[in-house]
Amino acid sequence: MSPDAVAITGFIVLFALMLLRVPVGMAMGLVGVSGFAYLVGSGPALKLVGQTSMRTVTDYTFGVIPMFLLMGAFVTASGMSRELFRAANTFVGHRRGGLGIATIVACAGFAAISGSSVATAATFSTVAYPEMRRYKYPQSFATGVIAAGGTLGAMFPPSTVLAVYGIITEQDIGKLFIAGILPGILAVSMYIATVSIIGWLRPQFLPAGEPAGMAERLAAIRDIWAPLALFVFVIGGLYGGLFTPTEAGGMGAGGAFLIGVLRGRLTLPEIRASLLQATRTAAAVFTVLIGALLFGYFLTITQTPQKVTEFLTGLGVGSYGVLALIMLMYLVLGCLMDAMAMIILTVPIIFPVIKTLGFDPIWFGVIIVMTVELGLIHPPVGMNVFVIKSVIKDVNFATIFKGVLPFIITDLVRLIILIAFPIIALYLPTRM
Amino acid sequence: MNTERPAVMRNRMDRFIDAIEWVAAIFVGIVAVDIFLSVLLRYFFSTSIPDSYNFGQLLLGILIFWGIAATSYRGGHITVDLVWANVGPRRQRVIDVFATLVLLFVVTVQTYTLLDKVVATRNDNILTVDLHLPTWPFFAIAWAGDVSAVLLIAIRTWRLIFHPEDLHAGGPQAKAVE
Fold it and tell me: How far is residue A136 CA from its own chain's centroid?
């Protein structure tokens, strides 16, 4: 077989294995090594397995992932989400749709210290949903706003998905984190606008909550010192060049642990649960990373990225036409697999195309993460929707997807804005 | 008696699996403490923990391989569940057995090739930068994690085929990552 035929066969087998629920990393590793063995020889292929596995798991830069996961686990266990929601609610809860806006703002604050979309969605399903239902918000809206708010976890630093993109493309993870801030703020603003428009169009749909007095507002602000301090400490240190991304993760984990223990929020069972949670997720992510690196050798030997680049740039649709095709592919893939799997599987192939077309790699990281995050809320996979459904038992999938629809439209508009104005993502990183 | 004995074995097995997961979890904590203290010492005392960077790397390797062992057993890997979620329980079980057998094959090959890496590191006498400690024992501990992964996946395969009720198979919502 020619290398091209081997590459095509490899992709077919890879997708078949993934559809048969073989772990994504293992399927990539198996196909990558088998293809490499077929083209180069089994001896060198087997050598790659041991060397790549050990090199990946002992790469200090990759330590950024377990460290930020641990920070997120401590933050979640410390219950900081309630304080954020309460603070946001005292300021905007009395407006029409105010509880929805408070959920979005609190999700953004929580995302900025937890780094996880799914954790954000799961947490606010227990924190914000009962409150919205108490004020007779429809189930579809209440769950939709939480699912959409959860996606902010991938935009605001420390985003695990952005970190993985940085590792695969060898981009500065610190710059990627910082690049997510302004697009994240844009996302929050546009989600708030969406809630306000829904409230304005259907006044009975989203009733106003009770107004809070000045004393209550001040008390709520006092309560959120911990998440604020943690965010400023970690991201400030990263932006100011005091820490490397891995160190920022370690300092964040240490800081979240100290704050949690000193405030009496982290007890021994919660510390244990946080350590286990971070371990499980880190192991799952590293398995995919090892598989992706092994698959990368197969891609190199078959020259797949170069051929894909030649094909796409030869279509004659211009650089933005190619970009549109890539975005479309990600939206379709979002129907099949989750964000992390999509990034790890496709970025090694797509990234050379992006570089050839002259797009900024940091900007593309933000764009791509935003696109794959859409997959977290659109049917049929929608991981955030699954998570919300697992927490809120009395709601069905169709109801959640209905509630999410206005936010999907908002996301598509935001994507167009960010493609039209790359400076939104690039302004802060260029000043580092 | 017949039902008690498997139950006792199951409990022992579960404790063994928990212990493996705990090894990984403890190392996550140690890596975090190592980084946290290193940064504090650097900025406040202008000093550093000897071999802090090397220890961070090597402990990371240990925690990941031991973590992969527990994650493989618990079915916590990132998977595409589109087909699995849309078929009946019998076919779900067939898919799970197939996927676990592939997993067992891949991790067994990985474990075999990693042993080569451990032996090569020992033969090359690779040392840490500051304390000049041999690095191969750390690699060996990490490799032991991969060996336990093979064992646990074999147990998972056995249970999937003969005692599926012993496994709390993770659906899509059970292994959210990003």
Answer: 30
Rounded Cα–Cα distance for residues A364 and A353 (Å): 11
pLDDT computed for residue B6 by the predictor: 63
A259-317 tens-digit pLDDT: 999 989 899 999 999 999 899 889 988 998 899 889 989 998 998 988 998 899 888 89
B135 DSSP assignment = S
Q: How many CB atoms lie within 10 A of CB A263?
A: 12
The whole-angstrom separation of Cα A220 and Cα A154 is: 26
Q: Which residue of A lies nearest to B142 if distances are taken between CA atoms? A: A54
User: Is A270 an interface residue toward B (CB < 8 Å)?
Assistant: no
pLDDT tens track for A318-374: 999 999 999 988 888 877 777 787 888 889 999 999 999 999 999 999 999 999 888
Measured in whole angstroms, how far is the alpha carbon of residue A33 from the centre of its chain?
Answer: 29
pTM for this one?
0.86
Is the per-residue pLDDT at B30 higher than 50? Answer: yes
Which residues in chain A have their CB less than 8 angstroms from residue B98's CB?
A: 20-22
Interatomic CA distance for residues A334 and A337, integer angstroms: 6
Interface predicted TM-score (ipTM): 0.89
Report the SS3 class of residue B134.
strand
Query: Are A380 and B113 within 8 A, CB to CB?
Result: no
Residue of B nearest to A338 (CA): B80
User: What 3-state DSSP class applies to A153?
Assistant: helix
Residue A295 with chain B: CB contacts under 8 Å: none
* Tokens linked to B114: 């990693």
Q: How far is B172 from chain A (nearest CA, A)?
A: 7
3-state secondary structure of B81: coil
CA distance A311 to A327: 16
Are the beta carbons of A63 and B31 separated by less than 8 Å?
yes
